[in-house]
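Question:
Write out your own:
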Amino acid sequence: MSSVAEARAAPSRARPDPERARERTLLLLAAPALLVLGVLFVWPLLRLLSMSVADGTLAQFEKAALDSLYIAVLWDSMEIALFVTAICLVLAYPVSLWLVQAGRLGFILGMFFLLLPFWTSVLVRTYAWMVLLGRSGVINRMLRDWGLIEAPLPLLHNLTGVLIGMVHVLLPYMVFPIYAALLRIDPDLKRAAEGLGAPAWRVFLRVTLPLSLPGVFAGCALVFVISLGFFITPALLGGGRVIMIAMLIEQQVREFLDWPFAAALATVLLAATLVIYAALGRLTGGQAHAAR
């Protein structure tokens, strides 16, 4: 009997696993992209790391970790990224809700205005905000003409201008994940809650919001991580009064030609970004698992 059972089991063991075959096929298809990514991304990162320890010591990292100036700039960069993420979340959630509920024409118009900034250079958009936010800019002139203010508002070369410019650039990165999460919610769940007598605000708090949390955390992670490395927008709209870590790295290269220390600062920024992204990723994964 055992020999018969082994004979029957032998073909099943010899039969190829469809899942493994599919994984091998996908890996082969992704191999060219992985090769390009390794050449254009991984190799420069390794060069950057080797440059930071070119003298054979960790002196550059010690300087970056112990100097209060660089610690303060990194902390300020994280605070600015946090503010930008919070503002984007407050603005993006209603927009995402509207996109889900809008008709075909409203959806097309909404997507058009969301994607329009991607068709324009970040540098051009930043200079446009400088024209709008200056002391004699469009916004201050309009407010004075309407009699709402007497003196120009300080909207440029400060934190306010930096936040406005960064939110304008990064808002779509928050809208799209939230919109995708809202789109996956089964409409029957909301209908069932309404049928049981729940008001609209309770349906939102008990059904819509919990099921959209994976998109919320994904959007927050994306916006926060991108904000940490921003350079052009804070450099122009901040006017040198708002310093972020990317600007400090550029300064080390352009003014001091200190490539090893610039590489060490860039490595510290990359490490901090990866740690934060991993933490947010675990949180996002837990929320997605809970939603399922």
Confidence is low (pLDDT under 50) at residues 288-292. Residues 62-291 form a domain with the MetI-like fold fold (CATH 1.10.3720.10). The two ends are 45 Å apart (CA to CA).
